[in-house]
Amino acid sequence: MPELVSSLPTALAVRSREVELPRSMTVPLPEHIIAASEEMREIVSVVRAIAPTSITVLLIGESGTGKEVFAELIHDLSERKGPFVTVNCGAIPEGLIESELFGHEKGAFTGAVGQRKGFFEAAQDGTLFLDEIGEMPLALQVKLLRVLETGTFTRVGSTTSLKTNARIVAATNRDLEVDVRAGTFRSDLYYRLRAVMLRIPPLRNRREDVPYLIETMLEEFVRKHRIVDVSGRARMPQIEPEAVSLLINHEWRGNIRELRNTLEQLVVLTCAVPREEGYCVISRRDVERALTDGMATGWDGDRYARPLPAPPLARDKEQTERELIYRALIELRSEIAEVKELLQGRNTISSSGTLALPPATPLNGKETSRIVSLDELETNAIKQALEFYHGNRRQAANALGISERSLYRKLKEKGLE
Ligand SMILES: Nc1ncnc2c1ncn2[C@@H]1O[C@H](COP(=O)(O)OP(=O)(O)OP(=O)(O)O)[C@@H](O)[C@H]1O
Ligand SMILES: [Mg+2]
Q: Please, what's the b/e burial string for 179-202 (b: 16 or more CB within 10 A of its CB; e: otherwise)?
C-alpha cells in the first residue's frame, strides 16, 4: 500500500483545486438582510451550508426577529426550481388543515366540489414553510410526521400515495420543549423537525446590528415616502449620535419589526413635512418621544407647519392596533346611534319584534339606505383592518379582536379571499 499512501496528498491537492464552493457559500447576502453581529454571521454561515441540502430546518425566535426572512433566504440560496410556499398553521381552521396541506379529491367531504391540490403539491421542487408550527393540531402532527419520514402523502379522500420532494422549513415563537412536556406537541415530530435548529436571537442580544438596520431602513423609507430635497433628490435624514445610542440601547420587545415601525414613523414625522431648517434631523428627543408615548400623546404640533400626513403612522404594532380598534369603535358607535335615531323616529319594529322592511321613502330626512347591516359593518371592519396591515392576517385579526382562524373563516364566508 505504500504507493497509495504516497499518492494520497497529490490526489487531495488535485481534488481541492477542482472543488468549487457551492453558490450558496459565495453569493452576497441580499442588501436588505442585515447580519453584522457575530451571532447573526454564524447563523448566515449555517444557512449557507445547509441551504443546498434537503435537510429540515426549524427556526425559533421571538416575534419580529426574522424567522420568515431566514426561511426565504434558505430557499433563495437553495437554488430549488420550485416555489417558496408559506403555510400559516395558526391561521387555517382546524378542520381544513389536512385538506389544505395534502389536497383533496372531489366529494371527499361536504363542500369538496372539485379535486384540489394542497400545499405539499404546490411546493413540489421548492420549499414548504410551515409557519407557527406550534399551532398545528395534534392529529395533524402525526400525519405530518409520516410525510416527513416517508416522503409520501395522500390527498383527503384518496388512497393513491403521492411523492413530495418539498424541503420543509418550520418556524415558531413558542417554546416547543415546553409544549412537548405539556403534551401539546409531539416529541417525535419536534426531533424530526429540528434536524437543524436555528435560534434567531432577539435584537437586544445583538445590538451591533442596530446601526446597520437603521441605515438600511432609513434609505428604504426615504425611497418609499419619496422624501426629496428642493432639487428633487432623495433626502437622507441626519440622525444625532445620541438618538442612535437610544435606538441601540432600547429593549425592542417587538424586535426588528418594532424598530422598522419606529424608523418609518421617525422618517415621516421628521422629513415628510417641510421644515424651516430645510433638512431633516432625527434628534434624541424625537427618538425619546417615539419610544415612550409617540402618537399616544401626540407629537409637538408646533414643530410642524401643517398637520401630520394621513393616515398617521403608528409608533408600533400595539399602538397601531389600538388606533384601529378605536376608529372601528367610533364608527360603529356612530352607526348604531344613527340606526337608533332612525328606529326611534319611525316605528320600524313590527309587532313580531323583527325589523320591518324599510319604506322606500326617506325617514326623518335621512335615507334608509344609510342603515348599514351588521354584516356589512363587519365586512368593512375586516377590509379596513386588512388594508391597514397590508394584508397581514395575523395583525388584522389581532386588531379586530378575533382569532386568525375566525378571520380566515369570515373571509371564506364573505368570499373575500
Ligand atoms: N436580518 C434582518 N435584516 C433586515 N430586516 C429584517 C431582518 N430580519 C427581519 N427583518 C425585518 O423585520 C420584520 C420582521 O421579520 P419577520 O417577519 O421575518 O419576523 P418573524 O420572526 O417571522 O416574526 P413573527 O414571529 O411575528 O412572524 C420584517 O419587516 C423583516 O423584513
Ligand atoms: Mg413570521
A: bbeeebbbeebbebbbebebebbb
